[in-house]
Every structure is written in C-alpha cells, then in structure tokens.
Amino acid sequence: MFSLLRDRRILILWIGESINAFGNGLTFIALAWFLYRLYPNSPALSGTVIGAWTAAMLLGTVSLAGYTDVWDRRRILQVANGLSAIWISLIPLLHGLDLLSFPALVVIAALTGFTGSVIFPAQQASLPTFVSADRLQGIQALFNLTWTTSGLLAPISAGFLVASIGAPGVMWVNAASFVVALIAYSIVRFPTVTRAQDSGQGLAAWWARTRYGFAFVLARPPLWATLLGLASVNFAMEPYVAIFLPRIADRLMVGVELPAALSWVRADSRGALGVGLLGSVLALAELGMVIWMGRRTSRHPLNWIALGCVGPALCIVGVAYAPSLGMALVLALLMGLCFGPLNVMVGTMFARLTPEEVRGRVYSARILVGQGLRPVGVSLAAVLMGAVGLAPAVAVLGVFAALLTLVGYLRARGAGDDAQGAAAAD
C-alpha cells in the first residue's frame, strides 16, 4: 500500500487529500458544536442546517456527478475545491461581522453541499486510473487512510481548537485545506482515459446517464446490497454526529476530572473535548483496520461491508445509553474496528466491478443511494428526540439501520451472487 507513494503523482494527491480531509474533519465537528451552542434548545434548527448541506449534496450528485464521465475530472476537482474554500470561509467571515443569520447558514450549507457533491465521484473515478488492477485495493486503502487519519486527529484537535479559538476560527483552517487540495490537483497531471461517447449536455443525456448508473447497480446484488447498507448506516450516523453526540458528550463529561494542564477549558466547552475524545478513539481503531486491510486481499468483501454497517449502527445505541465515559470509549473502539474495512471494501468492489468509462455515473448512483437517507435521518432525529428523548431516539435509528442492512445482505447472499461478486472483485 505505502509503496504506491513512490509515484510522485500519488504522493502529491495523497498529501493534499490528507490535509483537506483533516480540515473537513475539523469543520464538521466545529459546525455541529457551533450549531449546538447557537440553538441549544432547538435541535430542529441545527438539523435544518445539516439537512440543507446533505440535501444540496444529493441534488448536486443527481445533476452533476454523471458528467464526471464526460467532463475533465481534474478540472472538476480544481473548481469544486476552490469554490468550497469560498463557501466555508463565509461562516467565520459573516460571524465576525455579526451578519450570520439562520437563513444565511442554510444557504451557505446548501452551497457547500452542492459544490462538494462532485468531489468524491470525480476523485473515486480517477484513482483507479493511477494503478494497475492488482493494486486497486491498495490505493483505496491508501486514500481511505487520509480520511481515517483525519478522523483520528481532527476530533481531538477540533475539541482543543474550539475550546481555544472558537468554532468559527476552526472553519478558516478548513478553507485553507481546500486551497491545499486545489494546489495538489493543479500540480498533478492525470492519466489519459477513454471518455464516454455520449457527450450530450441536454436533459435527455443527463437522464440516460443517471438511469444507466442505477440500472448497473440494480443488476448486481452485491452492489445494491452494499448501497442499502451504506444508506442505512448514514441514516443513523448523520444525526448521531451532528445532533446527538454533542449532547451525549456533555452528559458523559459531567463529573470527569480534567488534568491541571486543561484547567483553561471553559465549563461550557467540556463537551467538545468529549466529542473529540470519542471521535479519536473510533478513528484510532479504524486506522489500524485500514492499514491491515491495505496489506491483504479479501475474498468476502460483502461480509466486511455488512459488518461495517451493522456494527456501528448498534454501537451508537450503546454510546447513547453508556453510564460512563469509559464505557462509551470502549464502544467507540468497537465502532472503529467495524468501520475500518467498510470504505476500503466498498471502494474496491465498485472499482473492480465497474468499467472506467462509466464510473462517474455508477458512482453517482452510489452516492445518491448511499447518502440519500442522511437528511431523512437528521429530520427524523429532531422529531424523535422531542417525542421520546435522546437515547431512545438514537436506539430507533440505530436498530432500524442495522435491520435494513441485514435485509439487503441476506437477499444478496440468497441470490447466490456474493461468491460471484467476491470472485470478480478478487
């Protein structure tokens, strides 16, 4: 896996993405805490901002991602990262000028989500072009390592940074990280690839690309079972991180004695440290699993994917009911062990089962289905928390996500395509 970094192009992209992933990790946590402090008694408002981000991302995926088979992917990544830097910097800028209103937050979140929607499919469609077929799992693990490492460093870093310079200041860091990614994509020349012949730009061409991506996935049970699992776990994890976790961490940090070196932490920011600690433990376990997966070839990818969806969905329920910070940390560790193989195996399976010239439209379907329930989960979470309380609301979402994943997994296995998909993936 790490031998791939001998290729200067991959090394530059990997460094750029590592910095950008770290910045994104900081902002997501800082934004969740920022919204919690702005609207402590109105989770629906926090959910609306996060939901606008996710809904706009899905809209962008539907309308734009299919064109990554036709447009220049390098240029897409340059423009999207540049615009994302502008949008995210508007939050601290307007906040500093005392001009940041709730409608402005919703608009900024929507712009950020829409612009960022093409980054993942363009990147994922491009990565396989840098390596031979036998190195696909390695490059997926390598770039998944950037997200995992940011997941390790960003939560605790965000906790300290929010406690010291405030959430808006953290968002300036993310804006700078988008600029770093823009520079990386500007330096590296992408391999020449065969473009799709259907280069039409009209509505009919768009619909044909979108429909093809879904038809491709639906014809392959391992792929649609994977997307059902991803949709389910995102349905539960999005509201857990954005709405539930700050409140859970606030509860878990009550009575916890901080070291003297942290005496400067304000009482109303102790929960941010709890969020960071839980996130870092999860990411540490995930990091170890990603490195392990990068050194081997799995013959049963769908099994790992099911574990990566069901395990975290049940673990968040345990965290919500955990009687102490220590118990919550153990569950966060288990969550990370389950999450580790998930993105590696999803990326590897899709890369190996999808021809290069149609990856953009297939990855468009992957993102749309995999992320489609995120805004639904956020909206439902706010309603459930008001009706039954925090922990029961997490339980409803988590158990539902686990059951839905199992349904898709068992149907795919029952169709007899797991072995076929695994053989094709290997």
From TrEMBL:
What's the main place this protein lives? membrane
Q: Domain Major facilitator superfamily (MFS) profile: where?
A: 9-413
- In what way does this protein cross or attach to the membrane? Multi-pass membrane protein
Tell me which positions the record assigns to the signal sequence.
none
Q: Which residues cross the membrane?
A: 12-36, 42-64, 76-94, 100-120, 141-165, 171-191, 212-237, 272-292, 304-322, 328-351, 363-384, 390-410
Q: Where in the cell is it found?
A: Cell membrane
Name a GO CC annotation attached to this entry: plasma membrane
Which keywords does this Swiss-Prot/TrEMBL entry list?
Answer: Cell membrane, Membrane, Plasmid, Transmembrane, Transmembrane helix
Please provide, alphabetically and separated by semicolons, the GO molecular function terms listed in this UniProt record: transmembrane transporter activity
Pfam families of this UniProt entry?
A: MFS_1 (PF07690)
Question: What protein name applies here?
Answer: Putative major facilitator superfamily protein putative membrane protein
